Amino acid sequence: MSLSNGSSDGGRPRGEAIMTGTTYDERSGMSSTGALRPASRTQMPAAVRAYLAHERVILGTLMVLLLLIAWEGLERGWWADALRPLLGDSAQRLKLKPIFISSPTLIAAAAFRMFFVTGEIWRDLAWSSAGYLLGLVLAVAIGIPLGLAGGWYRRLSYAVQPFLAALNATPQVAFLPLIIIWVGTGLSERVLIIFLLALLPLAINAHAAVRTTDPRLIKVAGSFGASEWQLFRTIILPSSVPFLLAGLRLAIGRGMIGVVVGEIYGSAAGLGAMINQAGARFQTDRVFVGVLTIVAAGVILVEVVQRIERRVEIWRTPA
Fold it and tell me: Coil, helix or strand for 187?
């Protein structure tokens, strides 16, 4: 059969239509492949659309529930009893004693008692929050201006960068004995250790933010007579915001480490001290209550910063 003879729809060769697998639209002069397109989201079942809209929450919640069930089974002996026919007496090792690790139900009961019955944890939480906020605010107030100035002024960068590099390579917890000698074991000690831990990510990110600013923007603004303050306010600072928020996110986590370390070694109150005292008494449920309280506070703060990051992503230059 010849492909050049038979035709249909405006003289288009029939063989070509067969070989391309498309239909020809006379009005637009273009071929249509609608039958091959995947169904749009509006044509999906309602359950699938709901899952796709909340996939992150659903998968995260599912994994947490699976972990809690597995954890509860270790303490209650569910897995030891289920595997006893296969493993014999060695399956008893899968049943852990509460003195070593508590269970989610025991931790939930201890948390309810400490938060809503006795209220004993609120004093420790307030004590830790005060030191944490003071240390983090000081780190933001000093670290961000220091990093921005170091990135903007070349000579200041030469002077500051060795100290930042040295502190970044040194675990700040190693300074804790010296800090206790210098300022004692009160609020000042906790604020100082949190300040040291949170300072570095803020200063380093601020320094890198200025260094990565597009120099062409600075040259163009300078050619129009922009002053140094106008350059900083309209170009440097807006382009640095995503870097600063990323540094703040890192500083939040490092500050939480400072809370625990500072209170374990140098305080009689606070969540870190409560965790230390409960661990010495083998009260693992109280230990987990303190740890999970710190985790929850850190996750909430990081989520707030991430939401702000998503709001300012429009300032970033498209890749």
Answer: helix
Is 250 among the domain residues? yes
Q: Are 75 and 288 in contact (CB under 8 A)?
A: no
Report pLDDT digits (tens) over 22-55: 444 444 444 444 444 445 566 788 888 888 888 8
For the chain, the average pLDDT equals: 79
> What is the extent of the structural domain holding 20?
7-36
> Span 98-116, mean pLDDT?
87
Q: Phi/psi at 226 (nearest 5 deg)?
A: -70, 140
Give pLDDT, residue 175: 82
What are the distances in angstroms from CA 24 to CA 15, 16, 33, 35, 47? 13, 10, 10, 13, 36
Residue 304 lies in a domain: yes
> HEC string of 31-77?
EECHHHCCCCHHHCCHHHHHHHHCHHHHHHHHHHHHHHHHHHHHHHC
Q: What is d(CA 261, CA 22) in angstroms, rounded to the nearest whole number?
A: 68
**Segment 240-262, tens digit of pLDDT:** 888 888 899 999 989 988 888 88
Residue 2 lies in a domain: no
Q: In this structure, what token pair is assigned to residue 211?
A: 């260094």
Q: Are residues 158 and 228 in the same domain?
A: yes
Tell me, yes or no, whether 59 and 199 share the same domain: no
Residue 1 covered by a domain: no
Q: How many structural domains are present in the chain?
A: 3
Place of tokens 């209220």: 119
Q: Is the pLDDT of residue 10 over 60?
A: no
Kind of pairing, strands 7-8 and 30-32?
A: unpaired
> What confidence score (pLDDT) does residue 159 get?
86
Nearby residues of 88 by Cβ (< 8 Å), 6 or more positions away: none
Q: What is the DSSP letter of 305?
A: H
- pLDDT given for residue 228 in this prediction: 76
Strands (E), the chain: 7-8, 12-13, 23-25, 30-32
